[in-house]
Amino acid sequence: MSLAVLNEDTDVSEEYRAFLPRALKYTRLVAAVSELHGTDKVKPLYDALGEQIHPGASRDPDTVIPQALAAVGLPVELARYADTDEFDAPMRESHFDGIGRVGQDVGTPVISVDGVAFFGPVISPAPRGQQALDLWDGVVAVASYDGFFEIKRSRTRDPIFD
Predict the structure, then answer these.
(1) Radius of gyration, CA atoms only, the chain
(2) Which of 4, 37, 114, 118 has a CB 3.0–4.6 Å from the CB of 20, allowing a cystine?
(3) How many angstroms separate the CA atoms of 57 and 161, rounded?
């Protein structure tokens, strides 16, 4: 999913609008890596980007991207794809495939289980071990119900990274 594509025709705050070009760089990079190096490289790259951006508190794509590429053993030269539209067609196709499954009024993450897609879960801190397995079983159970649409509550704390 691309937050930049999702919100390109949406009325959002100026602050959020200013964030979208940065988000688009990351999405373009991930699309290029998927096309050039395969989908098995996407999750490690996504994780490395997230580690730089969130607990690392780095906001500059020109710093984050080369570090994330190096962390997962990909050529840092791939960073150039963050600034091109060369892989926008498959990126947009993937975005609209996901949105077609879950609906327009969501954000990220989007998960699809047995053909049912939904936004979330947003969980902090991340569960481990049996707790993670129990949570996943619950997510699969609720997603399997044909009438399931939404579970949500407001955040009561900032994300916890451990």
Answers:
(1) 17
(2) 4
(3) 11
What dihedral angle (degrees, nearest 10) is formed by the CA atoms of 61, 63, 124, 117?
40
Nearest C-alpha neighbor of 39 from the set 98, 111, 90? 90
Are residues 85 and 138 both part of a single domain?
A: no
Q: Identify the domain boundary among 89, 120, 139.
A: 89
Q: Could you give the number of structural domains in the chain?
A: 2
Which residue, 61, 89, 117, sits at the end of a domain? 89
Burial of residue 118, with CB atoms counted within 10 A of its CB: 0-12 exposed, 13-18 middle, 19 or more buried: buried
> DSSP assignment, residue 8?
T
For residue 119, what are the domain limits?
109-162
pLDDT tens digits, one per residue of 16-73:
999 999 999 999 999 999 999 999 999 999 999 999 998 878 889 999 999 999 999 9
User: What global pTM score does this model have?
Assistant: 0.84
Residue type, 151: I
Residues 85 and 120 in one domain: no
Structure token pair of residue 7: 């919100």
Measured CA to CA, the distance from residue 29 to residue 62 in angstroms comes to 12
Q: Both tokens of residue 60? A: 């500059």
